[in-house]
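comment on this one:
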Amino acid sequence: MSAAPADPSIPPSSPSIASVSSVPRVHSEATAGEARQALRAPQPVRTPPGLPVLAEVVRSGFVEGHHRGSLVVLAADGSVEWALGDVDTPVFPRSSNKPMQAAGVLRAGLDLTGERLALAAASHSGETFHLDLVRKMLDEHGLSAELLQCPPDLPLDPVEAETYLAAGGVRDRVTMNCSGKHTAMLAVCAQRGWPLESYLDPGHPLQQLIHTVVEEAAGEPVAAVGTDGCGAPLMALTLTGLARAFRSFVAAAPGSAERRVADAMRAHPEYVAGTRRPDTWLMREVPGVLSKMGAEAVQAVALPDGRAFAFKIDDGGGRALGPVLARTLARVGLDAPVVSRIGRAPLMGGSAEVGEIRATF
């Protein structure tokens, strides 16, 4: 595998894959040792086509898989500092769009602050404090959980899901990780007298306002509108536009809807994600950072100095998020213990660690 260049403006070459045809066939016991030796030796290589490999899966010293993707890093002035892959073709940011959706709710007139505003921008883990606040917010606005149109689900965090099931819990709309966002959307619709039953329709006044917020933040038109896993409209952006949007939230004027969302998320990161989640760790341990992951392996981050980045793992492999996020943080010069914690992605063989997923750039 070629080493990453010292100049970050020059994208590193894609890691290579050993050619299967280069491994000698074993015809007898006499040649078996030679074959094993050949497997351990450097092999002839070929460059994989398409997007660059951002992470590789290494088990017992053997590279058994790759995660390709695209990544863009913006300088403090908002220009593209360096990029890998295709950062100008639109993608669905999934839950990385949630800060913009929360800003739309504020612009529509709902006065949310603190933990409530952070939860409106959350993909929460389904911990008890998340569920308690969702139910409290519903009560505060005279709403019932039956009005939520996110699908019933188990807690997003596997540990929480096991605890919830052991206690006799079943899939529920409140437990679904987007329930805070949906509660905020319902609340502002009730306040404005907008239809509740169609609050997820792309033509609904709230969704039209959110569409405008997304385009303004990203500095580009929405390329497509789809339906997210929670049922809400989903606006497609380029990765460059997504990074630009996060940068704009951190740089926004104090008191603006965008800055209020960024400040609430950074002040209450455990409500944005959960106690065992990288977004929480990063925002808690590095003051001023804004971070939000999305399904299908999307991540967007803004730094307090005006820099920002966004990436997507093309195959949606969420297991590569941590290593790629940690490597990007290191490449932009963030030196903090949390970076190593985020980047740790061991592979198990029985009860022992036998490998890792590691970034390649």
